[in-house]
Amino acid sequence: MHIESEPTRQLQRAATAARDAARLLARTPAAGRDAGLRAMAAAVRARAPEILAANAADLAASAASAAFRDRLALNPARLEAIAAGLEAVAGLPDPLARDLGRWTRPNGLAISRIPAPIGVIGMIYESRPNVGADAAAICLKSGNAVILRGGSDSVRSATALNAAITDGLRSAGLPEAAVQIAPGTDRAYVAAMLGAVGMIDLIIPRGGKSLVERVQREARVPVLAHAEGLCHTYVHADADPDMARKVLANAKMRRTGICAATETLLIDRTIAPSLLPLLVADLRALDCTFRADPAARTIVPDLPAATADDFNTEWHDAILSIAVVDGVETALTHIAQHGSGHTDAIITNDPTAARQFLQGIDSAVALWNASTQFCDGGEFGFGAEIGIATGRLHARGPVGPDQLTTYRYIVEGTGQVRP
User: Fold this and answer.
1) Which of 194, 204, 212, 400 fits a 20 to 30 Å CA distance from 342?
2) CATH 3.30.2350.10: does it fit domain 231-374?
3) Considering the chain, what is the average pLDDT of its residues?
4) What does the pLDDT read at residue 38?
């Protein structure tokens, strides 16, 4: 006899309410959804003291690394960025009002393809409290309901943020069940989400490799996931040295714990003797450490030697792997062997080399003369993001409101029957 656990019953109740909320949101005009987002922003600002206090308690209870704590930490500026992000999403065009195609068949049938919300989204994430707010914003904008399950390290922060979001929904006259959070940190709730066929339409994991692999392995619900953020910056032979130094320092050290941080530097053999010592000195001044291949160590002898696994490692820390390569094709081969399909960049003044790289790379996002840390929904003009998709189906790169819609067809006739 099968006996349902309490987390399973909790998830079923949440999903039933979310399904009802999603049906209502799908019919809510854009102005109503946008008003909800602006009300959520106002509520985040109003509840700032208690959100920051909750975050301080999470930080006090955490014994994690500095990079992990940076992902977890909120301060007044980051909290204001969360509120501003909600307002930015409200200012975007309505993803449900796009014209995806219209045509008329020879028999006179007029066919339209129109956007439609996916329905109920399940969002499983780890330490970054802003992820819940971003997910709420993007789901509401696109007419979806969302059930959030954050990590145990950020449970107080996530709960406080969700209280503010609920305040905003209520004041805007929208269903509070449009954004729900797991009632605790019981891992059985995650299992219930992964098995919620017919209740949750899409699962989005956002976190480390082990989380994503577990979701992909166990989910019976469709998954929109990203692999590791094992990102590369390739400094080509025709790179401007000053640009390369500025961009690499930002790509690696701006925030080492985010998934778009550069983890590996590839540098062309012809430019490495003059430029690599400068790049290393710049990053050392920022407290970065290194793992280098033999060619790089020939140029800068005191670099630590890279092991076989270092070029397959997403450091999430102030550590940079370094390899010397012979041109664009060698760089592309290295990335194909070691990369995760997330974000990779080339620094060069040669348009031909740039096109060769951009067309040859198979990553969700490729950049020319820019930091990999620009792989972010806000920087792409999405207002926020719910994650970075590295798969090949439905969406790739930053997932914003447009990417959380599917489509359906409307067919208008004048009495046609099929012969």
Assistant:
1) 194
2) no
3) 93
4) 98
